[in-house]
Amino acid sequence: MIQSKYRLEKIEKNGNVRYNLVKDIRFKDQKAKVRVPISDPQNVDILNMDLEKKAVLKKVELSSDYYISDYLEKSDVLSLEEKRWIYKEFFKQVSIDEASYFEKKFETDYIHGTTAVEGNTLTLAEVNDLLEYGLSPKKDLREINEVQNYVKTRSFTSNYNGKITAAFIKKIHSLIMDNILENSGQFRNANVGIVGCDLQHTPPELIEDELNELIQIFYENIQNQKYPFEQILIFHYRFETIHPFLDGNGRVGREVMNYLLRKEKFPQFLIGNENRSEYLSALRSGDEEKLKQMIQTFYQMYQNQLTKIEDEFNRLQ
Question: Domain Fido: where (predicted)?
């Protein structure tokens, strides 16, 4: 989607010669360039960071003008787009060791959070020891399987580059619920309800049709330049209302949500015990047809997370 190149631009005027370091940028069908003046072509490296900062701001301008936001204010989109492109460029600038550190940290935090939301009692340290060193804590086998299943799940989603489909979602469920649920990877064949919730989930005979329709609408909205962050959150909410499986809907829904975020070059959305009540409250706002309130709540949760990531980035610099 984004093509970036450095090139040296030589300008001769009135017998004088000057140079610019130029980076060409392309976003969707829009093209632009940013440049910084350079006095000595031999000193290109020291200006790379200045050029990258200009490039990020230009990408923010192009992307925020391109997308149509139905729920977030323009200033919110600008702020989120800036963080999105800074995050993407950061991984191009850091060392392999630093990138590996962040990837492992995000992965451990994500797996701990998404399982903890569903009641898993493994601590963050226990999850790290299990994933990093294979050290199993003295906990219920189901809880250990819940964590280990995410390694297989992420291996699958990391090697999958296509659009989401009903088959893709079933596969994720089969991996996440392996050795936990007998009929993993199969849509439910019975009606379900949630205690204390009046929301009616999709009847089993309509699940596949409604899910396919949801997927189609999502990609049509993306094609029509709707803001991806908003559309991904709406997809997540609609998926949870369909509730296609007997168990594991939250875990699968968050995994699909993060797959879509990664495809659009957003950082993962980390949801854990510390913001569980806020997360569930936001989903209930959608139940009450307050989608704007739901998206604004999720947006603020996400911004708080990105601020913490930014602090981590700055700590390494």
Answer: 164-301
Domain end (from 39, 62, 92): 92
129: containing domain = 101-316
Overall domain count for the chain: 2
Quick: pLDDT tens for 126-139.
999 999 888 899 99
Q: Residue 148's CB: how many other CB atoms inside 10 A?
A: 18
Q: Let me know whether 80 and 128 are in one domain.
A: no
Does 162 lie in the same domain as 65? no
- What 3-state DSSP class applies to 5? strand
Residues 6+ apart with CB under 8 A from 235: 214, 218, 256, 257, 260
Tell me if 60 sits within 8 A of 81, measured CB to CB: yes
Q: Where among 63, 92, 121 does a domain terminate?
A: 92
Backbone angles phi, psi at 13, to 5 degrees: -150, 125
Alpha-carbon gap, residue 35 to 54, rounded angstroms: 8
Please tell me the distance from the alpha carbon of residue 69 to that of residue 292, in angstroms, as a whole number: 11
pLDDT tens for each residue of 181-223: 988 999 999 988 655 555 678 999 999 999 999 999 999 999 9
Residues 229, 118, single domain; the answer is yes
Regarding whether 131 and 270 lie in a shared domain, the answer is yes
Contact criterion met (CB below 8 Å) for 5 and 30: no
Q: Which two tokens stand for residue 92?
A: 């191009």
Alpha carbons 171 and 207: distance in angstroms, whole number: 16
Q: What gap in Å lies between CA 244 and CA 258, rounded to an integer? A: 18
| pTM for this model (two decimals) | 0.83
Centroid of chain to Cα 240: 17
Which contacts of 308-317 are long-range, i.e. CB under 8 A and separated by 24 or more positions?
309/87, 309/267, 310/83, 310/86, 312/102, 312/105, 313/90, 316/94, 316/98
Residues 71, 217 within the same domain: no
158 lies in the same domain as 238? yes
